[in-house]
Amino acid sequence: MNASTGAERGTTERVLTLLGLLQQRHTWSGPELADRLGVTARTVRRDVERLRSLGYPVHAGQGVGGGYRLGPGRDLPPLLLDDEEAIATAVSLLAGAAAGPGDAALRALTKLDRVLPTRLRHEVRALSGSVEFFGRGRTPVDPEVLTALAGACRDEVEAGFDYPSGGEVRRRRVEPYRLVASDRRWYLLAYDLDRADWRSFRVDRMTDVSARTWRFRPREAPDAATYVQEGVAGRVYPHQARFLVHAPADTVRAQVPASAAVVRPRGDDRCEVLSGAAGLDALILHVLLLGHDFEPLDPPELAGRCRALAERLLKAGATPAPDGEDRTGPRGTG
Fold it and tell me: Taking Cα atoms as reference points, which of 117, 89, 263 lies closest to residue 183?
């Protein structure tokens, strides 16, 4: 993608976000819009003119209570994007939404569905349906790679890419199913044709990505977000464990990153936590530090490791301090 094409896409995405903001609230001041978009007030004025040139009734008021607003009583005209621009814009908005606080980007994406011509609207809906989320993604990836993978998911065609495995880079042939954004990275859930099984792949590790021409019949697939999250939080580690935590699921989810553990509700005041690590002791300590009562569920040896750690901590607490040292630490003099 050359610099001019990238600038055009950036402008298109920003103008689309501006349109979403104007539809969200009755009136915006110029400085408010500039702050939301991360641009100058002069750029806001130029983007408003771009919307007006496309037929959007953007009015500007002066003085106290003035600002920009969309005029009522008119159907908004279609946004003038060709197929490639619409798909690139949708993918870029999805990437932006998953990269951090993306409410404006997600609202702008929903506006695409309203303002595009019917033919392009179907394309973008199909594309958006190929992407799922858990948490918020942060590692940046090439939008063209996301475009190629999302298009392959949508069109049900095989994809190929180079991917590191076992210390070497190998070519992988897959039937792509869904793109999934976690709190840190983008993943592709796909059926690996050479290994005859479902696999998840980190998009930022892929190189030489291409959509192939061979179509495939979709298989019965696992839930994409759940499969990827369980893999990220547990299956990639040598040890996995399940705990019953005596706290609401929402409370525990707020304490644990989505990529570190899977949290499932077990009633209103308890939840199940699934996680993985290099050793069971580390998993026990992580759950202990959440500050809630808990019970070990799996594997069977987990309860024994809890008892061993408890005994070690009790022993450490009962050991006399050397040379009469005060274990309570320094005290104030006041």
Answer: 263
